[in-house]
């Protein structure tokens, strides 16, 4: 007998409907492959047709496998004006709202699940310690199948972590640290392997770079990543330009993904056009491949059933929606995801920080003086125009970049709340709040720079050498 919908289909978002159709299609294929009774197959097919009809009614589009609804990246904030819409894809984040992207609407539109108090409490019980501040403060706010990861962990079944970095410049900024800070914590509390992909091939395809420059940026970025404190016995960092030519398992998975995703699908998901080079069109399969343990036979002993957990910013989700759609069709488990908010530019939360604009970012190479100057000169303020008005009406922490940055980097919850109350009441002035941020970031970046000095070329080589890690599979 076919599954009945768990809720009214009209209440589902376009992407949730899309995923329901996909799941039901997988069920029909499994029933047919297992030679199930005809009435059971027929009931499942009827449910599939019903879901497809609901999908078309809701979206105005016919369901196409691997091609989510076309408007996924456009989030209307309740108005009809184009300038009031958020736009999110893997390369561009734009919003007219000084508070930043509306993440609640993004969850609905992308069809992911909110990281709520129940999930955070479950993580705390599983690991036996206080959750990371990024979880406590909603910086990692959305997930796909994190409950499955916790089920596996509680049943002594292993999983692994995968995150990455697109090396578009020699120096990284503080926003680039967010996924690595959190991934390091996840690796420590769950004690699992980690693979870190450096997509130097992507940057060569999208940027005006030579392959040599892209690879050199990857190695330099690897030093900053290693300086975050990752355990060399549990972590493999790889460059696509380097590793792809040496791993048959990795390339086989790329080819499998490529076979199951059409040109029409990648155009719909990523917005590619007929004038884009074929390298861009095929690249999503390369970012998908590390989601499968068989891409790393030296680590997982050729096992294909080990689930992957990917901490990343929400703009990378299109890659992994595609991956999750393909995975069952190539006999692989779907990767789980943890999504973070975007790290705002100094000038405000309307866009992400840019490695190409030195004044939009605090770089990991900045001196204490540069950090102080950038924050004082460029950090967008939520304060009032005059001291008198500020004392009377208070500041707005929702748009103040200095407070946003402290939310990421100030560990003490009580101190953060005190600052929020003082700034909102007008007791604390903008200059004083900026001073707190300067005093928080200066030692943090100085400590990172000191650790980076200790990272040698030989250490980078060791991290990037394919090898067995300290785990048995």
UniProtKB/TrEMBL annotation:
SUPFAM superfamilies: Nucleotidylyl transferase (SSF52374), S15/NS1 RNA-binding domain (SSF47060). PROSITE patterns: AA_TRNA_LIGASE_I (PS00178), WHEP_TRS_1 (PS00762), WHEP_TRS_2 (PS51185). Residues 13-69 form the WHEP-TRS domain. One of its GO terms (biological process) is tryptophanyl-tRNA aminoacylation. GO terms for molecular function: ATP binding; tryptophan-tRNA ligase activity. SMART domains: WHEP-TRS (SM00991). Keywords: Aminoacyl-tRNA synthetase, ATP-binding, Ligase, Nucleotide-binding, Phosphoprotein, Protein biosynthesis. Its EC number is 6.1.1.2. GO terms for cellular component: cytoplasm. It comes from the Eukaryota. CDD domains: TrpRS_core, WEPRS_RNA. Gene3D superfamilies: HUPs, S15/NS1, RNA-binding, Tyrosyl-Transfer RNA Synthetase. It is an enzyme of class 6 (ligase). Pfam families: tRNA-synt_1b (PF00579), WHEP-TRS (PF00458). Belongs to the class-I aminoacyl-tRNA synthetase family. This is Tryptophan--tRNA ligase, cytoplasmic. It comes from Thalassarche chlororhynchos (Atlantic yellow-nosed albatross).
